[in-house]
Amino acid sequence: MIDTIIELLIYAIFPFYKRKKQREEEWHGVLKEKIVKGDYSLGKYKLYLVFRTDADQKIKMPVREELFSRYEVGKRYHKKKGEDLPEREF
Questions:
Q1: How many other CB atoms sit within 10 Å of the CB of residue 28?
Q2: Which of 41, 54, 88, 89 has the least C-beta neighbours within 10 A?
Q3: Which of 72, 36, 67 has the alpha carbon at shortest distance from 84?
Q4: Cα–Cα distance for residue pair 41/31, rounded to 1 Å
């Protein structure tokens, strides 16, 4: 019983903490890859953007389908502190 409660807390709190941490980050980088994972026959898939920051850090971000096409591989983006997704630099 206690194990179940602990697992529930871990799976409920950890994603919230991770998202909050990502929101507080600020970085500049280049979109290196757009990834589609899942089962195409069932229509279930997840979309990810993979960025390489100027500090040579790899960041993989999940995105919704309507935002996925807005990003272009090879372009520079700036993730501002407090924002969920980066914006394109011009």
A1: 14
A2: 41
A3: 67
A4: 28
Residue 53 backbone phi and psi in degrees, to 5: -80, 170
Tokens encoding 9? 């807390």
The more confidently predicted of residues 20 and 77 is 77
What confidence tier does 47 reach under pLDDT thresholds 50, 70, 90? Answer: very high
Res. 75: pLDDT tops 90? yes
- C-alpha closest to that of 33 among 61, 54, 10, 66: 61
The residues, any chain, with a CB within 8 Å of residue 48's CB and separated by 6 or more, are 34, 35, 36, 37, 60, 61, 62, 63
Amino acid identity at 40: Y
Name beta bridge partners: 49: 34, 61
Cα Rg of the chain, angstroms: 16
| High-pLDDT (> 70) share of the chain, % | 81
Specify the CATH class of 2-78 in words: mainly beta
